[in-house]
Structure formats: C-alpha cells, structure tokens
Amino acid sequence: MHRLLLLAALVLSCAAADAVPGTIRKVSCPGSDETYDIFIPKVYAEEPARRFPVVFVSDPGGNPHWHGLEPWAERQGVVLATINGSKNGPWEPIHAAQKAVTETVFAGYRIHPCLRFSIGFSGGAWASAVLAGKFKDDWAGVVMCGSGWASKDVKAKHVLIGYHMGLEEKVMPIERAREALKTDRDSGLTVRGIERPVGHVWAGTAELEELLEWMLEHQRLAHPRLSPEDKAAGLARLRTLAASAAATAEPAPRRAACERLLAIEPAAALPELKPVREAWLGAVLAETDDAAEPLAAWRSLDRAARSPWSAGVAGPARKELARRLDALQRKPPVKAEVDAAKALEPVKAAEARMGNAKGAIQQVLAGYQGIAKRWPDTDAGRAAQDAAERLAAKAK
C-alpha cells in the first residue's frame, strides 16, 4: 500500500512538473473513473515557484466548458478546471466527482491555497455552492447562474457570491432570485447580482468575467487566509492597476477602468485609490462635455454626485460637478425629472407605513396617480404608474 501511495504521489508530481499551458481534455483522476478538463495559462510555465488561483466549473448536464473564459484566465493567470461528473441527479455521484477532481487538481498542480472559486449553472450552481461549503475558509467565491440561496451551503462569511439573474427566468424567477440575493446579504455574505433580459441560461462571457474579476481582485487583497507575501503582492498589483486606470487617455475607457477598481470593496478606501477616484470623476465630467441630451448628462452627473466614490475628491472637480448639475436642473426636461422624483419620495414613505386600512391605501394610490398624470414621461412618473397599478387591486 505504501508503495502504491508513493507511486501515485510520483505520478501527480510528474503531472505538475510537465503541465503544458493550454487545454487538456478528459484527464483521469487516479483511482477513480472521474475526469476533468483543465486550462493552464502560459505564466504557469514561466513562474515555477508561483501558486495559481483556480476556477472549478460545473454544469447540470455534466458537460461543462470554459464559456469563453480562456482569454480572461490567460490575462489573470488563473487555472480553469471542469468537474465532468457533476450533473443534476443524486448527490452521491456529485460528491464523488467533486472529491476526485479537487484532490487530483490540488495534488497535481500548483494551486493557490485559498484563491479557489467555483462557478455553475442551475444544478451546477447549487453544486458549486456545496463545493465551496466543503472547503469553508479555504474557498474564495462562487458564481451562480439560474440558482440561488448560496447562504444555505456557504457558511464562511468571507466567501463572495455572484448571481447572474434572468429577467425572463421560469425556473428561478427574478423575484425569487432577488429574494435569494437579499437573504444571502442579510446573512452576512458579500453578494453582487447582474440582471439580464434572458431566461434559464448560463451567464455570457462578459458577465462571468465581471463577477470573477471582482471576486479575484477583492480576495487578492482581503482573503483572511492570505500570507503576508500574498497581501504585499496584492497591494503592489493594486498600485499598478490604479496607475494604469488613472493614466488611460480616453474618458469612457478611463471611467470603466476606474469603476472596476472602485467596485472592489476592500480597495475603495485605500490611499492608493485616491488618484483613481479623481480620475473617475474627471472622466465622468469629460464624458458630459459634449452631451447633446441634457437629461442623459444630468443622470450621469447625478449618479456621480450620489456615489461614495466622489467623496474626498479634490475641490475643483466637486465644484465643477455641482455647477453643472445646477445648470442642468434649470432645463425643462431635467427640472421635470427632479420635481417628479421629489414628489415621489413622500408618497413612497407613506406607502411604507400605510398598513391595511382602505383609506390610507386609497390616499397613497391617489398620490401615485397624481404623479403619474403630471409627469408621465419621467422615471419617477413611470415608477408611480407601476406602483398605482400594483395598489389598485388592494384599494378595492
């Protein structure tokens, strides 16, 4: 038995040493019928002393693939691995597949001890949450497509949860997905959701990249199991990314690059990101310079003014933001939007405290109807119309 264990260790050691960048399909797990596919970035061969983040992929049909993530994994230096035997059905085969693949990958490749992620769709999403729960503190994030309530299985509060939610979902209707997101957040998990006009499908490549990028950059700074060396490397990487984002010439790409960094919760308040906040607000202002449509310009600037990212930005940019908002709010379409929004707030507050008394319900309904009638072409007016339709039946 001892010789067999030594032989298995030698085989796995050779696999790690001989790992070739690119995709390898249907790799066998020693002592098991389970298989996995693996994608190895080029930097894996270039930095033999480094350990790499990994993303495990699960699918309800037992046919996972990369979903176009190879370029992202190449840029980020991430290993991708599919769990081919994980599919809808009894849990026993899923557990067996997860055990065989994770043990083989962790033993056979230079995988980071805590920057470990899992993604999946439908039953594969559920399996991905269960997988994260098994490793607890040694896991970093889960992306769930067409599924929810990760907090039932993911107990470690530092594990990040990303939801891809379809507005046309039948299996996991959007209302239930939003409820699941709120439940997870209320349980203490850090959660982000992306809503798209799709049904029960995998997230697209762009959405998967957005969620995985957020998780990876967050955990490179804040995962509780990071070594001091990892933390120093994460901070150095943040400085490099911040300098690159702030130096981007064109306003739109500069704004997008800055927003990606500012959305990383543990990074947003760091001194290293002060220039990024200033570059972001400068990009927002620059994008509205030639705005032909006052309402679109006002919405962009108003979002910036309300954002915590604009706090602490140097005085001149803040003053310019306030000046432009004041000038735009004097224009008729913007004034109507602002006035409608102001009128909507007390009616929403009245609804929150109205209870079930018919008279109170009718009063709130009349308030919504009045706003919808006076400002029909505003966001607030349309929201009031939706609320009035919702309350009409209750008022009878």
Quick summary:
Helix content is 56%, strand content 14%. It has 396 residues and is α/β, with parallel strands linked by helices. It has three domains: 2-217, Rossmann fold; 228-328, no CATH class; 338-395, no CATH class.
Compile the SSE list and pairings.
Blueprint: H1 2-17, E1 22-28, E2 35-40, H2 43-46, E3 52-58, H3 70-76, E4 79-82, H4 91-108, E5 111-121, H5 123-135, E6 141-145, E7 160-166, H6 174-186, E8 190-196, H7 205-222, H8 228-247, H9 251-262, H10 265-268, H11 274-287, H12 294-306, H13 315-328, H14 332-352, H15 358-374, H16 379-395
Parallel strand pairs: 3-4, 3-5, 5-6, 6-7, 7-8
Antiparallel strand pairs: 1-2, 2-4
Helix pairs in contact: 7-8, 8-9, 8-11, 9-11, 11-13, 12-13, 14-15, 14-16, 15-16
Overall description:
It is built from 16 helices and eight strands. The chain has 396 residues and is α/β, with parallel strands linked by helices. The chain has three domains: 216 residues, Alpha/Beta hydrolase fold, catalytic domain (Rossmann fold); 101 residues, no CATH class; 58 residues, no CATH class. The termini are far apart.
N to C succession of SSEs: HEEHEHEHEHEEHEHHHHHHHHHH
CATH superfamily of the largest domain: Alpha/Beta hydrolase fold, catalytic domain
Q: What's the end-to-end separation, in Å?
A: 78 Å
- Give the CATH topology of the largest domain: Rossmann fold
Q: How many distinct domains? A: 3
- Spatial strand arrangement across the major sheet: 1-2-4-3-5-6-7-8
Low-confidence stretches: 1-17
Strand percent estimate: 5-15%
- How many beta-strand segments? 8
Overall body shape: globular
